[in-house]
Amino acid sequence: MIPGLSSYSIVLASSSPRRQELLASLEIPFQVRLRPVEEVFPEGLVKQEITDFLAVLKATPFKNDIRKGEIIITADTIVWFEDEVLGKPKDESDAIQTLRNLSDKWHEVYTSICFTTSEEQHVVHATTEVKMAFLSPEEIRYYIENGNPLDKAGAYGIQEWIGLAGIEKVRGSYTNVVGLPTQILYKTLRAMV
C-alpha cells in the first residue's frame, strides 16, 4: 500500500508481540531483529523526552551495520501519571498498587518511534490520554490473576479484559496505548520512501 516500500527492508527491533501484531496488521512486510540495550534515561527528562531518548537509544546497537535500503524501527512507550513514569510492575503487589492508583483517574501514554537508515534518523511520537474507570479490589484481583500485567507499562493492556471493562475514555491513538501508534508510523514510512 506504500508505493516504493518494496525497495526497502523493514526491521522491527522489538520483542513485543503487540508491536509485531500491529505492524503486521498494516500489511507491511518486516523482520524482527533484536539487540540488547539497557533502558536507562538521564534524570530530568519527562514525558515524551523519555520515550524519544529511549527509542533512539534502542537504535544505537544497529548503527554500525545497517545495510542500504534497511529501515530499523525502534519504539518506547511509557505511562505518565502524577508527574512520574509508571514502568512495568516489579511484581503482583506492585501491579495491584499501580492499578489502585490509576483507578478512576486520567493518565497519559507516550510512545516514540525511531526510524533509522544508513543515512538518517527520524523520531516521531504520539500522546494519548486515558481515563481508567473505578476498579474494585475484586476487578483488580481478577485482572492480576487472569491478565498479564507484569509485562506492560502501567500494569495493564488496553486490548485485554481490563481495557474492555475498565477504560472509560481514550483521547488520541488507541494503538499508541497498545504500544505502537500505527497511523503516525504509516505516515512516516510513506514520507521516507
What is the quaternary state of this protein?
single chain
CATH class division: Alpha Beta
Beginning-to-end CA distance, first to last residue: 12 Å
Q: How large, in whole angstroms, is the Cα Rg? A: 17 Å
Quote the average pLDDT: 96
Question: What fraction strand?
Answer: 25-35%
Shape assignment: elongated
Q: What structural class is derived from the secondary structure elements?
A: alpha/beta
Topology as a string of helices (H) and strands (E): EHEHEEHEEHHEHH
Q: How many H/I helical runs?
A: 7
| Strands, count | 7
User: Under CATH, the topology is which?
Assistant: Maf protein
List the uncertain runs.
Answer: none
The helical percent reads 25-40%
Can you tell me the CATH architecture? Alpha-Beta Complex
Molecular structure report:
- With 193 residues, the protein is an alpha/beta fold.
- It has helices spanning 17-25, 47-59, 92-102, 137-146, 161-166, 174-178, 182-192, and strands spanning 9-12, 31-32, 70-81, 84-86, 106-116, 121-132, 167-171.
- The chain has one domain: Maf protein (Alpha-Beta Complex).
- A hairpin with a 2-residue loop joins strand 3 and strand 4.
